[in-house]
């Protein structure tokens, strides 16, 4: 059995689809299944059992001998949520419980960290574990992810194999339920479809022109391919960046979305909301050398390739991965 937490969510559901493609059908899907708005993500997927998030530890204690691998993808990911107690419960304490059981039951573990741990990038974007305690995330979500990374590195007892993945700006199918937290591509598609144009945040930084703020956008299909690689690799434990390795502008992103929709680009600029302006990242780019050094050789989708696939195969036909 392979456990996937956050199974009905964006990345978790795409991972299950990818596991099914590889012939893994004994999947234990863990999530808060009371959130009906994302359950369509599991339609058509082969799953052995659904387990409520609150029941998972009791389930694992009973079934641990049959569990071969755990992907802990589930988390509270809302960067605009400032109730630290929520993140402490769902992102820190829950992850510690999973880690400790993986140690006790000798189960390999891959868990979701985040590029939000890098804050404004004062220390750069190098996945050097010695730098992790020096990072300054910009919000409680990033703090919670960094806190768990620091805790994991400090543990004397670790799973036989483990990896924390610092996801950068992931986009792709099955993210429709994320609301404001969905990717800019998702919002651009729907805004263009409705109005024929797209609004982007104006730059409030002298070094960046409007629309030329840069992020590392990574297609979800690349993310789940890396997860599969690590499940098969099972050595070189540690914390890894997971981005495309190439920063691109929001203007590039929106232009690619217009092109995939076969619509002439029309972009307007609006002020960045005051509540996020002082916490806005103008540049992120994952250093991917560490993952490459352990043998991951597959190319990543370019921004244009990823958006073309996402728009034409999923957004336009309203399909799931």
From TrEMBL:
Catalytic reactions of this protein: ADP-D-glycero-beta-D-manno-heptose = ADP-L-glycero-beta-D-manno-heptose
Protein name per its UniProtKB record: ADP-L-glycero-D-manno-heptose-6-epimerase
Q: What is the lineage of its organism?
A: Bacteria, Pseudomonadati, Bacteroidota, Cytophagia, Cytophagales
* UniProt keyword list: Carbohydrate metabolism, Isomerase, NADP
EC number of this enzyme: 5.1.3.20
Q: Which cofactor does it need?
A: NADP(+)
All residue ranges annotated as the NAD-dependent epimerase/dehydratase domain in the record: 2-243
Q: Name one Pfam family in it.
A: Epimerase
Cofactor note (record): Binds 1 NADP(+) per subunit.
* Domain-related comment: Contains a large N-terminal NADP-binding domain, and a smaller C-terminal substrate-binding domain.
User: PANTHER family, from UniProt?
Assistant: ADP-L-GLYCERO-D-MANNO-HEPTOSE-6-EPIMERASE, NUCLEOSIDE-DIPHOSPHATE-SUGAR EPIMERASE
- Gene Ontology terms: biological process: ADP-L-glycero-beta-D-manno-heptose biosynthetic process; carbohydrate metabolic process
Name of the encoding gene? rfaD
Q: Which family does it belong to?
A: Belongs to the NAD(P)-dependent epimerase/dehydratase family. HldD subfamily.
**Binding residue positions for NADP(+):** 10-11, 31-32, 38, 53, 73-77, 145, 170, 178
Q: Name one GO molecular function term.
A: NADP binding
Record's subunit section: Homopentamer.
Positions of substrate binding: 169, 180, 187, 201-204, 215, 280
> What species is given as this protein's source?
Salmonirosea aquatica
- UniProt cross-references to Gene3D superfamilies, sorted A to Z: NAD(P)-binding Rossmann-like Domain, UDP-galactose 4-epimerase, domain 1
The record's HAMAP family line, in alphabetical order, gives: Heptose_epimerase
Q: Kindly indicate whether the keyword Mitochondrion belongs to this entry.
A: no
The pathway is:
Nucleotide-sugar biosynthesis; ADP-L-glycero-beta-D-manno-heptose biosynthesis; ADP-L-glycero-beta-D-manno-heptose from D-glycero-beta-D-manno-heptose 7-phosphate: step 4/4
